[in-house]
Amino acid sequence: MRVGLYQSHPIFGEVDANVERAMEDLWEIKADLLVLPELFATGYQFISKEEVRKLAEEIPNGKTCQAMLELAKRKNVHIVFGLAEREKENLYNAAAVVGPAGLVGRYRKTHLFFDEKTFFDPGDTGFQVFDLGFATVGVMICFDWWFPESARVLALLGADIICHPANLVLPDCQEAMKTRSLENGVFTITANRVGTEARGGKEPLTYTGESQIVGPRGRVIIRAGKGETGVFTADIDPEEARDKSITARNHRFQDRRPEYYGPLTNPEINKSP
Ligand code: ACM
After folding, report:
1. For the chain, which domains are there?
2. For the whole prediction, is pTM greater than 0.90?
């Protein structure tokens, strides 16, 4: 199967133009699965909750989601993309999964980064996987990478491919995702953006590019440049993610010792210094 990622440079608040450019850039691409960045249609650096509310949209009735549904149907492709989601009074940093037959699912970011804590509600979907027929995909968003539990849970749920819409501003994600792929035996597709945003007198945010696809043995299959934009594709075999062996006598999942992992699910531990 062919997978692809879109490394973009959105203009803050210009939803129509950003979506239109994505539609044009993706139109010629033949792929089974495409991953777009976090908040690809709105931009990232919000300066008020009101601004988020104005630009956020409902899934699946909002215009970004409708455009992606149209693209998915016309091009017979599944698309995972990040968007600001509004549901009643709540605002989420979310991702939607759409395909030729319509909306497949949504994920709301679990671990909010920095000022996102002011603008978004914490995600309440938890980590989920979606069986697309040709592969099972899981979704996590940007800063979720910092918490290895995110990828581990998705792998344990059966993800072959972790789709990772991102707007990365910290330097270490791309290298860390090689380990997330290796230890879980999964493909990871990190779709990042480029450019700088400096809005409302806030610290400028420079996005790191270098979107990548990593294979289940931790090797980078494709990596975009720091500043370039465009669509990058690779042919992969999701079957490779179903072999979880490490050596003839070691296995990523069967060798786990969950009886010793209790602190991972003990909320009291979060209060440790
Ligand atoms: C991030 O989570 N967008 C840094």
Report:
1. 2-243 (3.60.110.10)
2. yes
Catalytic residue among 51, 57, 116, 142: 142
Split at pLDDT 50, 70, 90, the class of 270 is confident
Nearest CA to ligand 1 atom 3: 167
Task: Say if residue 28's pLDDT is above 80.
Answer: yes
**109 labelled catalytic:** yes
Q: 173 near 190, Cβ under 8 Å?
A: yes
In short, whether 38's Cβ falls inside 6 Å of ligand 1 is yes
Choosing from 109, 116, 173, 210, which is the catalytic residue?
109
Beta-bridged to residue 78, according to DSSP, are 33
d(CA 89, CA 82): 19
38 is catalytic: yes
- Single out the residue of 225, 177, 154, 165 nearest to residue 34, CA to CA: 165
Q: What is the pLDDT of residues 101-122, one digit of tens each?
A: 999 999 999 999 999 999 999 9
